[in-house]
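Co-fold these.
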Amino acid sequence: MIHDRYQLAFKLYPYERSSDQDAAQPVRHPVVVMGGGPIGIATALDLGLQGIPVVVLDDHEGIGQGSRAICFAKRSLEIADRYGAADKMLDKGVVWNLGKVFHDDRKVFEFNLLPEDGHKFPAFINLQQPYFERFLVDRVRQAQAEGAPIDIRGKNRVDSVETHDDHVRLNITTPDGPYTIEADWLIGCDGASSPLRGMMGLDFEGRVFEDSFLIADIKMNNQDFPTERWFWFEPHFKSGASTLLHKQPDGEWRIDFQIGWNIDRKEELREENVRKRLDAMLPGVEYDIVWTSIYTFQCRRMKQFRHGRVIFAGDAAHQVSPFGARGANSGMQDVDNLGWKLGLVLQGKAPERLLDSYHEERAYGADENILNSTRSTDFITPKSKTSHIFRNAVLDLAEHHAFARPLVNSGRLSVPCTYDGLSLNGADALTGGPARTRPGSPCPDAPVGDRFLLGQLGGRFQLLTIDADAPDALDEDGIAVTRVALSASDDPTGALAARYLGDAPRAVYLIRPDQHVAARWDSFDASAVRDALRRATARG
Amino acid sequence: MRLNTQPNIAAPDDFYADLIAAHEGLSDDDSAALNARLILLLANHIGDREALSEALTLARQPG
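Predicted complex below.
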């Protein structure tokens, strides 16, 4: 029997018997994904849209209830857009720019994210995780109808794995009993408590934070509350050591109370006790409670994200504090990074060691996220008396003095990292080129005519030329490179030139399939491009 | 060394007296809070990250 561990928000992939269950010998698949959460489904989309057959195994039949991740960053939307799944997210999501910071009963200051112009997507949307997942699954269904070889199997629980040099064998339980399949590659997207990690006896090292957070999603009858992020340090209403209020779609609000380490979870989750905290915070407001949960967190990551033919992504590979929205957002970047690399390896166009660069780049990203979220946590929850005194001194000064406001850290909001100095990066040979598009950077969006640049990039290697000559197509050992020829005059706002030319009159960029810059030059040189392409595919 | 460790304050006795006077009548906790605000104000005025790092290193060495 397979018991549900949680209630479903949407039942999207009910159990169906697979022909694999009647096969005489275990059927071998190129890729099996363990876990049908946002990271697993996005992985299946990335690979399926490349035409690579992928099987997703999940021990439930759909998406779990509860909003969990709510802040989806621009980069996640850009990645989802590459998969054709972002429009519904943007339609449904709440866009916010204004944040207010309070200490005790005083407003310390407010900030505006001041989103940069010339991007298709806003800096952030707030969207309950079940919607984010559902829109990805909706896109899978559409892609399947168009022939994408994606197979999501609900109520398929992986009970054990046997790893071999060139494949993995998976023993699976279903409502119809057990069966076995094999995978050339197994991707572990099975979440923070990853059963796969446990089955393989792998480490997960880092720092445990001794604090608990009570989440309450509520529906307020008063709809006048503004669409802003409010953060309280040591709130006067004493409902927690810190409190965060955030708007979600459907008239729902997310409230996070930091409630300490030694608590009685069951007691705290009783509705009357949750209401006590909410009533103190929102006197006179009528509301319905939609969902509550208590969570604790850790900042840690696996030492290695790749173990032979098993690769880990998302929370299974790394965990951060929730401050800064770096959990699901970093998982989407993992998928973005892994998809094209695994695709090239499976097609025999790149050596297996290209997948070591997945660990190199995404562990680098995880370390950056862990560093940032640890610093936020240490500011929000000072670990010593002196740290507490400095934290409150910053908040006191921030009320009257602009200099102290950048020191206030209630979460540094997720931005994708630049893979500085890592092994796939090629030449940075664009004289006067802007720092933000140096090799390793994710391409910033820009308006191009009546469209956006990122809509024209991704999914394959491309040469982006701006007022520069180059061949329209190249082929290097079976890897096709196509050209996107633009002119600075395509964008009268000047954003394209500011982001890609800087002081240079023209530029040639080699862009990876994940929209990261591989290399850039003043002009096209066939052998330089070939070298950079070989390097970016681990053949150099 | 970017941090100036040579005498740089005119009328040092006056400054020292002002520093002590600023803490007069404060509890230990309030004094600690004042010190923290003072450090932050001065650090921002200096701004130079290298000089600040040198000051942190020197301050950690007693005497």
